[in-house]
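As promised in the previous annual report, we have extended the structural survey to additional targets. Below is the entry for NB-ARC domain disease resistance protein.
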Amino acid sequence: MSCIKSSHVRSLLVFTNNESPPSFENKTTKNYKLLRVLDCESSSIRKVPENLGNIIHLKYLSLGNFIKCEILQSIGILRNLETLNVSGAVLELPKEISKLRKLRHLIGYRLSLIQLKDGIGEMTSLQTLRNVEIDMDGAEKIIKGLGKLKEMRDLRLIDVRGEDVIILSSSINEMQHLEKLVVKSRWEENFEVIDLELISFPTTLRKLTLRGILQKLPEWIPKLHNLVELKLYESCLTEDPLKSLNCLQHLLSLTLRDHA
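The corresponding structure token record, generated without further manual editing, is:
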């Protein structure tokens, strides 16, 4: 890295087989202040650069393969950040994330938004929110906040509790640009019921995945005329859903698995 005229670098992709040298984090934040893209997804880096907030022009940040990492509070200074990928780690995101008003894509492995429960609704630029756990006290406030994210295109939620399904339905009804939706229920001796009641369902929805018990096939699913992919897992339906789904003329892929 020392041979590169770092002051002119706009994109930096990091590939390592072993843990990065101690100097890496300091050099990145000190010498690459004009970076727009920092991608460490294909590396074995274990530590987030301490002065990450110094790279104020950063738009894309991927820490995908961090096994153990903490997203430092200084990330709230990255006001130009549009994509944050932490898909390699289980993380509780700090409340400072809610200051990133330009953030469009937030991708994780198992993300906790509990610290953002008072601010998630203000992140109105969000279009992608993947793999968010909502099995905790305070989940109701988080789910209500999601309803304010009207630009959402790709939403993936895991460990959804049965008691939160009504609130979740109300929030999804507000996402009229939604194209991909994944809802996976919580497991406690069995999967919970996830009978989503979508009244003003997003007609733009193209891909839908539901994992959890359905008392019956939701009436809104056969009305999704732009749907190309449908996956139902553990639904335990007592009636054959194919009769209701034959009107989906654009459906290309149908998956019914594990007692669906």
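The first strand starts at residue 11 and ends at 13. The chain has four helices and eleven strands. These points will be discussed at the next consortium meeting with the crystallography subgroup.
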